[in-house]
Specification:
By secondary structure, the protein is of the alpha/beta class. Helix content is 33%, strand content 22%. An eight-stranded parallel barrel has the order 1-2-3-4-5-6-7-8, surrounded by five helices.
Length: 187
């Protein structure tokens, strides 16, 4: 199992956990990737948080959505809704994003179905997040729970696959590269 730690600022605030403590836990758990997600802050706050993480963590650092800050990390992750805000055509949106990030940065997107995985296969990506595997307390708007189908759907991807949504370190998959753990890392 390879660990991709999802550092969600709202969760940290809710549980009164400092960014530094979360990153220390991620390091102890041997996280290869940390994604910093903050859906409500301005870019300056997110930038400061990325710099703090970079100062104490030397693994891969991904920012959620804020592609404008890619110079402060190793890559960007965007969700399906966020892709369509860039351009209604997801293939065009990824070309635009790749133009911003360049080839040397990691680019990943969220997927939720076999159809979205197959569409992602046509995109210039490094990985996909696939899920939700099960219900999670960190996202309230989950419309599709893939459960045991997640591994079979992952087999259609030509990209690395990160299982998302309620994933536990103990979960077993055949076609998944990373377990994305958010609140489970600090539970």
């Amino acid at each position: 199992m390879r660990l991709y730690a999802l550092c969600d600022q709202e969760l940290l605030d809710k549980r009164a956990i400092s960014l530094e403590d979360y990153v220390s836990i991620a390091i102890e758990q041997k996280a290869e990737i940390i994604q910093y997600r903050n859906k409500s802050a301005d870019l300056q706050f997110i930038k400061r948080q990325l710099i703090k993480i970079r100062n104490i963590y030397d693994g891969f650092l991904i920012v959620n959505d804020a592609y404008e800050l890619v110079e402060f990390c190793d890559g960007v992750h965007v969700g399906q809704e966020d892709i369509r805000e860039i351009d209604p055509d997801p293939l065009k949106a990824i070309k635009i994003l790749r133009g911003v990030t360049g080839k040397d940065k990691i680019l990943g997107i969220s997927t939720h179905s076999k159809e979205e995985v197959l569409e992602a296969n046509e995109m210039d990506l490094n990985y996909i997040g696939l899920g939700a595997y099960r219900n999670t307390s960190t996202k309230e708007d989950i419309s599709t729970i893939l459960g045991e189908r997640l591994d079979e759907i992952a087999s259609y991807s030509k990209h690395f696959v990160a299982a998302i949504g309620g994933v536990k370190k103990s979960d077993k998959f055949s076609h998944v590269t990373y377990h994305v753990i958010g609140s489970g890392l600090i539970s």
